[in-house]
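hi!! sorry for the late reply, been swamped w classes. u asked for the two structures so here they r. pasted raw, havent cleaned anything up. first the sequence of the first protein and right below it the C-alpha cells
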Amino acid sequence: MAEVSADTVRFSGEELDLAQLFKAYGLDWTPEVGHYVLDQSELIKCESPFQDRVFFILDLKHFLRRSETIENLKERVCWLPTWEQMRQLLREHDVSDQTVVEHLELTQAIGRGTERLELYRLFEERLTGGSM
C-alpha cells in the first residue's frame, strides 16, 4: 500500500459536495480500512491530519468504538472514494473504460490535475441519468 501523506491528500470542496450527494442518493458502501471519510457529525473528536473533518480509516476498530455499529458509522460519516475506488464504482455502474478515457480527455483533467474530480462528476452523471 502506498504511503498516506496529509500533504498530498486533499479533496476539493466540489468532491466533498458530490460525495455527500452520492450518500443522499443512497450509494451503499461498507466502511473498510483504506477508505477516506468526511466526518459529518463530529464523531471523531481529534483534529484531522488531512483537512477539516476528513479522516483515513487505518483502524476500523477505532471508528467502531466511537460509532458502536457499522450502520451508525455509515450514518455519521460520508465515504470519499479515492481515484481507484471511483474507477471501480464506475465499472460497477456500467461506465466503460472508454467512456472514462473520453471524459478525461474532453475535460483535460490530466493536464489540470483534476482526474478524481472528473471521475466524481462522471459518476454523478451516471447516478442522475445525465448524458455520458
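now the second protein. again sequence first, C-alpha cells right under
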Amino acid sequence: MKLEFLQLISPSLPVGAFSYSEGLEWLVQNKKVSDEKSLFNWIESELSRGQITIEASSISHIMRDLINWNDYKDVEYKLIIDEWNSWLSSLRDSPDVRSQQIQMGESLLQLLIDLDHPLPGNEKKLIWPIAWAWAGVSWDISEIDLVEGFLYSWVANQLSAALRLLSLGPTKAQQLQKKSLLLIKSQASFLLKQNPKEIWVSDVGAIMAQQSHVELYSRLFRS
C-alpha cells in the first residue's frame, strides 16, 4: 500500500469533512438513530443502497477520463469531466449535500495544487468524488484501494459525527468501523464492476433527513 493512501484517508485531511453529518444530526434529533445498533443499520443501508454507491462506482471511470485530460490537455476531455461533475451533482437532492460536495472537492483540489499535483489550468471547481479520483491519479493509488478508501472515509466521518451526537464513545466507534470493513470491501469490489449510470438507489429516508437538516432549531453541523 502506498503511504499517500494513508494521507488521503486520514481524518486530519483539511477538507472540512468533520463539519457535516449528511442527515445524521436530523436522524438523531428525531430519534431515528439512537444507539449503536440503529447507527450501524444506518451506515450499512447507505453503503448498500445509498447515493454514495453511485459516486464510488464512478471513481474508476473518472480516473481514466482525468488521465486523458491531464495527458492531452484537450477541451474534449475537460467537457467529459464537466459532464461527470454535473451528473453527480444532480443526483444529490439536498442543497446541503450539494454544497458539501462542492466545498470538499474544492478544498481537496486546492490541497493537491499546494502539493504540486494541479489539474490542467489549476482547475478546482469540481465536486468531491472527482477530487478524490484526481488524488488517486496523482498519487498512483490503485482503483480498488481508492474506492475502498472512499467508502471507509465516509464511514469514519459518520462515526465522527455520531461521537458528537450520541453517547457512543470512541471504543464503540472503532468497533463499528471494524464491523463495517467486510461490507466496504465487498461493496468496493462489486461497484468497480458496475456501470454507475445503471445503479439504482433506495435511500429516500436519507434524502429526507438531509433535506430536513436545515429546519432543525439548533445544529452542530453545517447547513
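hope this helps!! also noticed smth abt the second:
The first helix runs from residue 3 to 9.
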